[in-house]
Amino acid sequence: MKQSDIFRDNADNCLQLAERAEGQPAHNRFSRMADAWTALAKEQDWLDGEVPPVAVRTRQRQDA
């Protein structure tokens, strides 16, 4: 199993915990943890070369 898949599984677990959380603070905490695991999975995909890097746009200056 790829590392990014493990991270996504962790995110899914956090979302399940958020659904069952008693109280808004716990729900918010688990939701933020799920977001963090998802971000790690996306970064790991990039590090593994599965996702191309984001092209940086350069702003062209227009002289008047």
Structure keywords:
64 residues; mainly alpha; 2 helices; 66% helix; flat
Folded structure, characterized:
- The structure is a single chain.
- By secondary structure, the chain is mostly helical.
- The protein has one domain (3-47).
- The protein is 66% helix and 0% strand.
- It contains two helices and no strands.
- It has helices at 3-20, 24-47.
Over the alpha carbons, how many angstroms does the gyration radius reach? 18 Å
Assembly level: single chain
SSE order, as H and E?
HH
Terminal-residue CA separation: 56 Å
Runs in which pLDDT lies below 50 for 5 or more consecutive residues are none
> Describe the biggest sheet?
none
Helical stretch count?
2
Number of domains: 1
What share of residues is helical?
A: 55-70%
The SS-based structural class is mainly alpha
Overall pLDDT confidence:
90
Silhouette: flat
The beta-strand count equals 0
Beta-strand residue fraction:
under 5%
